[in-house]
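Backbone Fold Data
Goal — fold tokens
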Amino acid sequence: MTPPRHGGVATSESSIAPEEVVGVAVRDALDIVDANLVTFGDRFPHDNTVDEVYQLRPAVRGWGQDLPAGSNYGWTTSFWSGQLWLAWELTGRDRYRDLALAHVESFARRVRDGVDLDHHDLGFLYSLACVTPDRLVGSAEGRCAALAAADLLMRRFLEPAGIIQAWGDLSDPAEQGRGIIDSLLNMPLLYWASKVSGERRYAEAAERHTRQLQRHIVRDDDTTFHTFHWDPVTGEPRSGSTHQGHADDSCWARGQAWGIYGFALAYRHTGDATFLRTAARCADYFLAHLPRDGVAFWDLVFSDGDDQPRDSSSAAIAACGLLELAEGLAGADGVEEPTFSGEIDDDATTRVARYREAAVDMVTSLAERYTPRALGAQSNALLLHGVYNLPRGMGIDEGNLWGDYYYLEALVRLRRPDWVPYW
């Protein structure tokens, strides 16, 4: 079964999540996590499903060793660990915590052995898999591994440009000076490292990088580039491009969702209200370019009437970002309140309600239209109808690990408003 590609009906008229929808969605999600706990255990599923089912991550030869199936490499493995921590916080059941702690050793070994570390996604990996157990249960092994990962991330900081290079060897001319909007979710690792180490250099690098993205990766029309290039020697901004979007000048949906969440988190860590305004700009554009059921197509250039795949993961990320943005705006007393301009000129209070309502509608639509239960599908994904990388033919109309994680995070945020984010 497929979701409606030519429009649907908005699912909620209230800013309060329907208790029965969230409750059923949480139970369904935990049932799938339980099944995957048995299937995968301390091994890791692949990035996305194939024919709607996750298999073990393939065996590979790389980084000077043979890695068997289910090994810890790639940028998405921590989203399985993160689901376990969310499940533990929801239920208090020891089996989730114990398995998530078993994952810590794998991540410690990965950073020690140098397995697949030449990228900015160390923040995704080590915030969920190692910082979270340090925060929740005092894992010394998690803390040490996360600090080591933060140091590796700092090696990617290009001083002239003031950015953290996204991918590849730092001497690779094809990748030198490339920043990426996804990296906003990797910056919390550096803020955490400053907090636990007492060294400001981590947070200073994160804030400088975020300001560069604020200036150059967010366009004047409130859309975002997927990646942006700086001269690695002079630091001069060059141009934007896409890697996973429809075109260099279109607006890749997941990238816009990273912008909502990432800039809202930057405010959480810095108290700078300009980051709230930037998050709101990204949010307003995202919300104005959704199909009627509130779940984005893979690029925001498409909408109702276009025969293109949806990306449920973009909706899940955006829902978390909208709730974080609403929380930031609601608690902005004592700081300079952000000013807004453009077509939507609501005050902060009105925006809080609107963003919360939009997040509720998105999560409700996901629960009622995009889950295996809603679709009558035999799948071990929490969400279906996601897109990994359409231009490269990867994970199209499938479930993916990050979509599953952020969907469960959004449910936790609605179920427990006092929940403290892992980012």
